[in-house]
Design goal:
about 350 residues, alpha/beta, Aspartate Aminotransferase, domain 2, Aspartate Aminotransferase, domain 1, 7-stranded mixed sheet, 4-stranded antiparallel sheet, 13 strands, about 40% helix, binds pyridoxal-5'-phosphate
């Protein structure tokens, strides 16, 4: 197959020519010693943009989330998180492995929640219980459905958490998607929380890199954690230059990805055997279900693969498709045509392989 349309994730984007030039031209130094001017500039810009005191560059979103946990928690503490939250589900058990921290999970619509959802699992301070230290948010939500926290709902919960003496951390892997779709400025939401992790390797199209933003004290602690975890890079300015380039060139275009996602959702709604609520598609993540009578999610994944389109199975019936920088409006249309074609053939007759790389439950 010559050209695949890869909708598995926005992490599959390749750096553009302009981004590669910025990386090649980056002024660099030894970041572990605080001497990389490009990393320093990125950290300064991110702290300023988000209205916080400081920031620290990290290798991945997993690392910067865990640096957030590091900044707030110690062994024996617990963090509170939505049951679909990335930190609890997809980071290899890192809160337990790295920090000795347990995760207490609760429900809520679309990966988001209300005060009552968190209160339902909150226990009193008592020697029997772990110390509840941190409340984690995700914005946009991933497994929750690519949903965007409304500012008002977010403020209600984060204010309540602060009044309770809880620390707050946002997994903002796709935070700029949230700001674009939710129509708010980054600092408007971040004002109400302690730390946020933001990824450059997703919607923003960089090869790697994330940033944790917070108070000076929290970031000092996180920086120490980064060293201990082996995440202190040297001439990291090459990656920071890509991130700065993305801040300058790739923020406004996120709205294109959201438009493409809406196109996809509206098309999918018209295809027999699939179900989707197009109103729930708010950002670049499109979740939909293969109806049981028609087949399984993995059968559709395989059927699409043979038609030049890659998507992810995220449950027996659930599919995730993600629009991004490397997907044009035309390719969105082609992907939709492929889905229509796959569904008009007999999906149930698609033979499954024992394991394949397109499932992520
Ligand atoms: C919501 C969310 N948080 C964190 C991460 C982790 O990022 P990374 O893969 O860079 O560790 C991801 C990755 O897909 C994500 O979707």
């Amino acid at each position: 197959m010559s050209h695949m349309i890869d909708l598995r994730s926005d992490t599959v984007t390749k750096p553009t020519a302009g981004m590669r030039q910025a990386m090649a031209a980056a002024e660099v130094g030894d970041d572990m010693w605080g001497e990389d001017p490009t990393v320093n500039e990125l950290e300064r810009r991110m702290a300023e943009l988000l209205g916080k005191e400081a920031a620290v560059f990290a290798c991945t979103g997993t690392q910067s989330n865990q640096l957030g946990v590091w900044a707030h928690c110690r062994a024996g503490d617990e963090l509170l998180i939505h049951k679909d939250g990335h930190i609890a589900n997809y980071e290899g058990g890192a809160p337990a492995v790295i920090h000795g921290v347990t995760c207490r999970m609760f429900g809520g619509s679309g990966g988001m929640f209300e005060v009552a959802d968190v209160e339902s699992v909150l226990h009193p301070v008592d020697q029997h219980f772990p110390m509840t230290r941190l409340l984690c948010f995700e914005n946009t939500t991933n497994k929750g459905g690519g949903r965007v926290w409304p500012l008002e709902q977010f403020r209600n919960v984060s204010n309540w958490a602060r009044e309770r003496g809880l620390k707050t951390h946002v997994d903002g892997a796709r935070f700029f998607n949230a700001c674009t779709a939710g129509n708010y400025q980054p600092a408007e939401l971040v004002e109400f929380i302690d730390t946020i992790s933001i990824c450059f390797s997703k919607g923003l199209g960089c090869p790697f890199g994330s940033v944790l933003v917070g108070s000076q004290d929290e970031i000092d602690r996180a920086r120490r954690g980064r060293k201990i975890l082996g995440g202190s890079l040297r001439q990291a300015g090459i990656a920071a230059a890509a991130a700065i380039y993305a801040l300058d060139h790739h923020l406004e275009r996120l709205a294109d990805d959201h438009r493409h996602a809406t196109l996809l959702a509206e098309g999918i709604q018209k295809i027999d055997g699939l179900s989707i609520d197009p109103d729930s598609v708010e950002s670049n993540l499109v979740f939909f279900d293969v109806e049981e009578d028609a087949g399984t999610a993995e059968q559709l994944v395989m059927a699409l693969l043979s038609r030049g389109v890659k998507v992810l199975a995220m449950g027996n019936q659930r599919i995730r498709a993600c629009t991004h920088l490397d997907i044009s409006a035309d390719e969105t249309q082609q992907a939709l045509d492929a889905v229509r074609d796959a569904m008009s053939a007999d999906l149930k007759s698609v033979e499954m392989q024992e394991s394949h790389p397109y499932a992520y439950r």
